[in-house]
Amino acid sequence: MQNKIYYETQIDWDAKDFYYLHRCLHRLFYYYKKYSEEISKMNLDKMSEETKVLIYCIIKYYNYDFIFDDYSNLSTLRDTKPLKNKLVLDDNVLPEENIYKEMNVMY
Amino acid sequence: MEKASTLEGFEKALFSLDSKLSGVINTKLEIRAIGGFAMMYYGIRNKGYTIDIDSLTYKFDLIVSKLIEEVGEELGLEDDWLNTDCAMLEGFMNELAQEITWRDSKYVFKNIDLKVPDILGLIRSKAKAIHDGGLVPRSTDKKDLIDLLRNMEVNSIEEINSNEELKFIKSKYDRCYKYLCDIECW
Asked: How far is B152 from A85, CA to CA, in rounded Å?
């Protein structure tokens, strides 16, 4: 079984790579019941700041804050701060105000 | 970065599955590929749109599911890289499948009958998904719809209103229509 994408080194990643990472994380957390086991095994220490911010954005976008409580391994995500450097997932940004903009993610 | 998300990666997987299906099934496996794969197929985005192929068909039987899993293992894809999850959503099978124009894919398989929707069909599926998404539709559906509309060179709610082919968005999927009204242009 290959390494999970959310643990991969992100040196030389471009916007498309981060867009794909976001798609993967989005699937996991949007369908959190189906992927509960995998979510419960996630190790934040092995993730980049960008990856953690993306997970945070997904959780907050859908008002899934209960995930911070239900998954003890993700509890510290509750205090995630915006990225210092803008993370571009897509130049064609969704024309709406949302958590992604607050966290300095172009989505 | 794994290759799984590319069109070429999925093509390889489909051909591998096609090979494994020989002698195992009596009729061709019906795949109606909707969603991210169809968007990659049309070149709207050439990488990273999806990690699976959603088929708007009834659930695959156990034998087929096992073979899909086998291909997934061999090629480093998800176990359910080909699935029918979207068809399980309420209304998708009954409403959507009949309203979409399906086109034969460019691939020649022995044991697979793969069709993709036309662009309008993709727009219809995304409009329905946003409408059904209620107060917080999936951000990925919104992104996809905007990209599809841009592909049609439709960039504003005014252009939607003046396009006969897109009138169904207002008449059938009013919550999606309201979202587009709210953002006005893209």
From this structure: 33
Long-range (24+ apart) CB contacts under 8 A made by A34-41 are: A39/A67, A39/A71, A39/A74, A40/A71, A40/A73, A41/A73
The Cα–Cα gap between B165 and B119 comes to 11
Q: Return d(Cα A16, Cα A89) in angstroms, integer.
A: 7
Alpha-carbon span A86 to A104, nearest angstrom: 5
Digit-coded pLDDT (tens) for A40-83: 999 999 999 999 999 999 999 999 999 999 999 999 999 999 99
Q: Which residue ranges make up each domain of chain B?
A: 7-117, 121-183
Tokens of A29: 């957390």
Chain A and chain B share a number of CB contacts under 8 A equal to 53
- Strand B29-34 vs strand B53-55: parallel, antiparallel, or unpaired? antiparallel
Please write the tens of the pLDDT for every residue from B71-83. Answer: 999 998 888 899 9
Q: Which of B2, B51, B136 sits opposite A62 (nearest CB)?
A: B136
Token pair for B155: 């960039």
Interface pTM, i.e. ipTM: 0.86
